[in-house]
Design a protein that fits this description.
The complex is a heterodimer. By secondary structure, chain A is an alpha+beta fold. Chain A is built from two helices and four strands. Chain A is globular and about 40 Å long. Helix content of chain B is 34%, strand content 16%. In chain B, helix 5 crosses helix 6. The relative contact order of chain B is 0.13. Classes of the chains: A alpha+beta, B alpha/beta. At the A-B interface, helix 1 and helix 2 of A face helix 1, helix 7 and helix 9 of B.
Chain lengths: 99, 290
């Protein structure tokens, strides 16, 4: 996954103590199947997704993951998607202490 | 399947039940049929039905395309004749699970007579009717479910006919399980489909779906998101509600839920019982075409 770097920040690296808690889940998008109906964006309970400005090969606007840390893997996006283009999975719990 | 957290991407859980080489499908952006198929695939995944013993039959229309997209034995019949084909299948192979997946126009207008008689005989099948209030594939003509005053291609001044109340019609014909959901109620729809698939006898689910391209556009009701928000705001779950009270008007409140669940002997059971009564030991109970 690509990571957007924050421009012009005083601290180039976030300190380890302020590391946000790991996301509970992840959404996967198949961009070429999407028809841009935006149901996944509207019905995501934690507002992980937003309609982006990018287009796919057929010219439909695509949803984008804007708040990946909020995703809890509930798969509501996958349930609503009429085109089988998106689904969410819950991340497996890591054992405490193990990286 | 073991999903390693490193770069391997998990696959969509519905992919194994769909013919992915045919996807993207022909339905319009935001069509409710896609969501209902998504729920159907997940319901199949939850049941322990043997997929080799499962048959999906569709008629003609937007929803009639479902038979072409599900990756089980399926048949795309002529207009309105999904139920006669499914009846033959259910009688020839009583051990098979037969699902009829079709639209309101196909099941209640062109195939209306077939449907009421299959319900009367209590043929062992599950009927999933996606009701989008219009004939989507042919350009938005009026159907027996188009509400009063709604505009369609053939009623430019608004529809003046009365409509069918689908759950009431099917219940009065003798269905053993009747439910209605909208495509907004995805989780309840999956649960209901699972229950209908495990029910012996004629089970019926009405799925209210949006048609953004024809019904929503002609009536100036906005896009698919607005339709789903309307379902969210105006629908109430009333399990066991009397089906006479669940009729729909134009943009009215929608009562959803499981309305009927009362088992009765199926066509096959009654045939074997009656013949055994009359013929006694001379009759060999019918167990399908071998």
């Amino acid at each position: 996954m690509e990571q957007d770097s924050e421009p012009s920040n005083d601290n180039p690296k976030p300190s380890k103590s302020e590391k946000p808690p790991a996301a509970k889940g992840q959404a996967f998008i198949d961009e070429e199947r999407c028809k841009g109906c935006s149901y996944c964006v509207v019905f995501c309970p934690t507002e992980v997704l937003a309609m982006g400005g990018r287009l796919n090969r057929k010219g439909y606007h695509l949803p984008e993951v804007v708040n990946p840390e909020k995703c809890n893997g509930c798969d509501m996006c996958g349930l609503f998607c009429p085109d089988f283009a998106i689904f969410g999975v819950r991340n497996k719990k890591k054992k405490d202490g193990g990286e | 399947m073991s999903d390693a957290p490193t770069n391997s991407t998990p696959t969509n859980p519905v992919e194994k039940l769909l013919r992915m080489e045919r996807i993207p499908h022909i339905w319009c952006p935001g069509c409710g049929v896609g969501t209902s198929v998504n729920c159907f695939a997940r319901a199949l995944d939850k049941t322990d039905i043997d997929y080799d013993n499962l048959h999906v039959v569709s008629g003609i229309g937007c929803t009639g395309r479902v038979a072409g997209y599900v990756n089980v034995d399926s048949f795309h019949t002529t207009h309105g004749r999904a139920i006669p084909f499914a009846t033959g299948l259910a009688i020839a192979r009583p051990e098979a699970k037969v699902v009829v997946y079709s639209g309101d126009g196909d099941l209640f207008a062109i195939g209306g007579n077939h449907l009421i008689h299959a319900a009367r005989r209590n043929i062992d099948m599950t009927v999933i009717c996606v009701n989008n209030f219009t004939y989507g594939m042919t350009g938005g003509q009026v159907t027996p479910t188009t509400p009063y005053s709604a505009k369609a291609t053939t009623t430019p001044y608004g529809n003046f006919e009365d409509t069918f109340n689908l759950p009431n019609l099917v219940e009065s014909c003798g269905a053993v399980y009747v439910a209605r959901w909208t495509v907004y109620h995805v989780r309840k729809l999956i649960k209901s489909m699972t229950k209908a698939l495990n029910t012996k006898g004629f089970s019926f689910i009405e799925v209210i779906a949006q048609c953004p391209t024809l019904y929503q556009r002609r009536n100036k009701l906005g896009d698919g998101v607005m339709a789903l928000q309307y379902y969210k705001e105006r629908s109430t779950v009333q399990n066991g509600a009397p089906t006479v009270d669940v009729g729909l008007d134009y943009q009215s409140d929608i009562i959803v839920g499981e309305f009927v669940d009362k088992p009765r002997p199926t066509f096959m059971d009654k045939y074997n019982t009656r013949m055994t009564e009359i013929l006694g030991n001379k009759f060999v109970p019918y167990e399908g075409v071998k």
